[in-house]
Design goal:
Elements lengths: L1 H23 L6 E3 L4 E8 L11 H23 L5 H23 L3 E7 L4 H4 L5 H19 L4
Length: 153
């Protein structure tokens, strides 16, 4: 039950943050935060990672939806077994982030990204993220590491 609550929590938290960004921030205006380490910036990502596929939004949305459904199946199957808590945690993080970004793609027709890391490298500073992106990356990494270390899952 805790894993499902984590998925719901990520989704609802991101929904609130993204709605706030949509209503209260303007694109192309950066607001420094955390001693200039983070830039709050509104960005509409019409594609996938790094705006790849922005000219094929329907395809990106379909792939995102198919990926989410596939991960739901894997997650549900994992819930039927005992143990594997780290795998289930990874899948919950991944799904919470995936649901949020997929919802955006289907509802808004773009994903709301809202912060960047201020670095000495302009190309890295230019990348705009949301919390869901990190949930997906961390969740996928955790689940993959568990499977690599224990292929009998």
């Amino acid at each position: 039950m805790g894993y499902i609550l984590l998925i719901i929590g990520i989704f609802l938290t991101e929904l609130q943050i993204k709605n706030y960004i949509e209503k209260n921030k303007t694109e192309d205006i950066d607001e420094p935060a955390l001693k200039n380490r983070i830039l709050i910036r509104k960005f509409h990502n019409k594609g996938a990672l790094l705006n790849i596929g922005n000219k094929k939004r329907k395809m990106v949305a379909a792939i995102s939806l198919a990926f989410s459904f596939g991960m739901i199946v894997v997650f549900i199957l994992s819930l039927t077994t005992r143990g594997n808590h780290m795998f289930k945690l990874g899948m919950a993080l991944l799904l919470g982030g995936a649901f949020s970004n997929t919802y955006d793609r289907l509802k808004r027709k773009y994903v709301v990204d809202y912060f960047s890391f201020q670095t000495h490298f302009p190309r890295i500073t230019a990348i705009v993220f949301n919390i869901s992106d990190f949930c997906i990356a961390v969740g996928a990494a955790v689940a993959a590491i568990v499977v690599i270390l224990n292929p009998d899952i």
